[in-house]
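Most newcomers find our protein records easier to grasp once they have seen one. To make this concrete, we reproduce a full record directly below:

===
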Amino acid sequence: MNDNQTENSKFEAAFKKALYVFKDDMDHALSWLNSPCPALGDQIPIHLLDSTDDLKLVMDELERLEQK
């Protein structure tokens, strides 16, 4: 698997989770992924998908939001 495929699969995983959390509202999911997130130190979630550790932080925050 090349780097581009890896990046795509990480984005796909985060997007699918965001879509689930935001009840299939694609605009809300994309907005959340592309906006500064206070729980992530005001970082933009989509910018954190380069490493597995950062992807886990994004997924953990989505899990937390799902529990609300």
Q: What stands out?
A: The chain has a mean pLDDT of 93. The longest helix spans residues 3-21. The radius of gyration is 11 Å.
